[in-house]
Structures are given as C-alpha cells and as structure tokens.
Amino acid sequence: MQEYSKSKLNRVKRGQNRANYDVAQINAILDSGFIGFVSYVYKGNAISLPMAYGRKDDKIYLHSSQANRMLLSLLEAGEMSMTVMLLDALVLARSGLHHSVNYRSATLFGTVKVLENDKEKEEALECFMDHMIPGRWNEIRPMHQHELDRTLVVEMTIKTASAKIRDVGVNDEPEDESLPVWAGLVPLKQVALSPISDEKLNKDIQVPNHVIEYYNMHK
C-alpha cells in the first residue's frame, strides 16, 4: 500500500481516526467525483470555487479561458490546493449535537504549470472529457485550432494529499440511546436520469452507447 507522507501541510488534525493517506483510496475518491473546490488568493482575498477536473495518475487537469483569474492566480503562485467531497448519508441522531454526515473527502496539494503544447493540451482535455463520461472524446468533433488557442489548460502535479472518511452509524450519548427518538442513516447518492436528446438533433441520431452505458451504471 502506497501512502502520501504526512506533514504539517496534509496531516489531518481533527478526527484523526477518519484520516487516510492511501494513494489508491484517494484516487478512488477523485475518480468518483467530478467537481473539486479550488482555493486561491486574488488581490489579497481568499476565494474558493468549484471546478470540473480530470485525473490521470498524479495529474489533475483544469481548463478555462485564457483570461481566467483563478487559473492565472494559481500559475502565478506555482502551487494549489483542491478538495473533492462525496456525500454518502445523513446521520440523524437523538440529539442535535450528534447529527452528522457520512462522506468521503480528499484534499490535494501540489504544483501547477500551464500546458502550451497543442498535443499536451488535447490529451489533457481528452482526460477531462472522459472523466466526465468515458468514451465521450472519441464521439465528438475534433477541436478547432482557434478553440484550442483560446483555452487555458493547467496541470496540477499532486505532491501530497489526505482523505477523511466517515462511514459509520449514529454516535449518540449512551444515556440517550433509550429515548423514544428515531435515529439512523438516510443514504444519499447522485443518480443519472434518462438522457434527453437535444431538440435540434437529426431524427435519425440515436443516444450513443457510451451515454447509455453511463446512464445504466448511475441510474
């Protein structure tokens, strides 16, 4: 089992019993998510924004316009942090204090650089697209050069990371366990609904297999 080394930067302090530094488990969280919360500083202000991402090995790919202030700020700093969280259940206890949620979260720390080579940019965008829905990249038209030129692609190399995972039931005070109050879990999951074809599609174009496969896996 390969683990990220623990340091002041990535060590989980609160709830250490839920901490996890296993590379494979952190990658599994990243692969199950698609939106990460990216933190950066802009003109002295701390800002956090949700961003879709793609992952390949120890690389995270983000993209936006060439004028995107978040990506430009990250490139200026040369480093970044991103958190991905998956919500698995509401934990309803007998007292307000012990209500909680079950979740899987991963926080990444690493260095960033801009991708300028067209081939590298396309490979990063393919990674991003197939992270959204596997097989999608090969079904769409190739990018025009002017689209590629207008797109800023940033590559993060994960240097260290940590995860926090809560996957247990209610943790009430012993004296509260006999109270006539319902307690338990409400499991949650994100599901895909039936694909809706664009109204401008030619009538003979059917929903492609990769979309149907994604729907069947997540319905």
Strand content: 35-45%
SS content category:
alpha+beta
Calculate the terminal CA-CA distance, rounded to whole Å: 32 Å
Total number of helical segments? 5
Helix content: 10-25%
Give me the CATH superfamily of the largest domain: Electron Transport, Fmn-binding Protein, Chain A
Summed up, the domain count is 2
What does the main sheet amount to?
9 strands, antiparallel
Organism: Tenacibaculum caenipelagi
Protein name: Nitroimidazol reductase NimA-like FMN-containing flavoprotein (Pyridoxamine 5'-phosphate oxidase superfamily)
What does this 3D model show about the protein?
The chain has 219 residues and is an alpha+beta fold. The chain has two domains: 16-188, Electron Transport, Fmn-binding Protein, Chain A (Pnp Oxidase, Chain A); 190-219, no CATH class. The protein contains five helices and nine strands; from the N terminus they run βαββββαββααββα. Strands 1, 2, 3, 4, 5, 6, 7, 8 and 9 form a nine-stranded antiparallel β-sheet that branches. The radius of gyration is 21 Å and the shape is globular. The model has no long low-confidence stretch (mean pLDDT 95).
Summarize the structure.
The protein has five helices and nine strands. The two termini are 32 Å apart. Pfam families: Pyridox_ox_2.
Main features:
Pnp Oxidase, Chain A; 219 residues; alpha+beta; 2 domains; nine-stranded antiparallel β-sheet
What layout of secondary structure does this protein have?
Elements: E1 19-20, H1 23-32, E2 35-42, E3 45-52, E4 54-56, E5 59-65, H2 69-77, E6 79-92, E7 100-115, H3 118-132, H4 145-150, E8 151-166, E9 184-187, H5 209-218
